[in-house]
Amino acid sequence: MTFVLVSGPAVLDGRNLRLTDRPGLVVVRATQPGNGVFLPAVSAERAFTVSGRPSAPTITLEPEGSAVGIGDLVLLSADATGEPPPSFQWRKDGNPITGATQRQFSLASAAASDAGTYDVVATNPLGSSTSERARVTVGKRSQTISFQGATSAAAGQPVILNATASSGLPVRFDVVSGTATVNGAVLMSTLGGTVVVQATQAGDSNYEAATPVMQTFIITSGPTGQVIH
Prior knowledge:
- The protein has about 230 residues and is mainly beta.
- It has three domains: about 1-50, no CATH class; about 55-140, Immunoglobulins (Immunoglobulin-like, Sandwich); about 145-220, Immunoglobulin-like (Sandwich), CATH 2.60.40.
- The protein has strands spanning about 1-5, 10-15, 15-20, 25-30, 45-50, 55-60, 65-70, 75, 80-85, 85-90, 95, 105, 115-125, 125-130, 135-140, 145-150, 150-155, 160, 160-165, 170-175, 180-185, 185-190, 195-200, 215-220.
- Strand 10 (about 85-90) and strand 11 form a beta hairpin.
- The termini are far apart.
């Protein structure tokens, strides 16, 4: 018989198979080429599952903290070695989180109450190991305002102001220069000239106030100076 090491953490010396220090699957193939009387035999393989030496857990991947906005995804990852393979338990501010027993822990939509320090404990029969603490901060989300639509109009004609906030919250309009009035989202000026309108959004419990955005409108009057009706 002839033996061949097909794969795995081992060393084959003739008929002696010596395992190395690594766990894994060892596959050995046996062959017989035959002779003048016998045809070659069909090769046969035997697999051996090699377990690692028993060891207490050791954290190999530390979780990293993050700063997110309300409603954002939080994803924490950790890993540990050990034999037998360790189990995991995530904690928030030192308190176990129900059901958080995988290498990854996630919050699909973070709330302000989710802010805190998180760690994970890896445990097997030989002991346990605790990761470093990862701080998660949860704050209000930012938002922006953008203006759309025409920027010129005739005097005496209403101009529908069109500006939106990325949060979807309502926008407020105010005239900051020029002769005009704003009623809700309608701009009205009876005189020709330049009017500057400012759009603001004050935010709410989930969003920070947006940076105000200004838009300039050119109001034109009739050719004889008369207001266009």
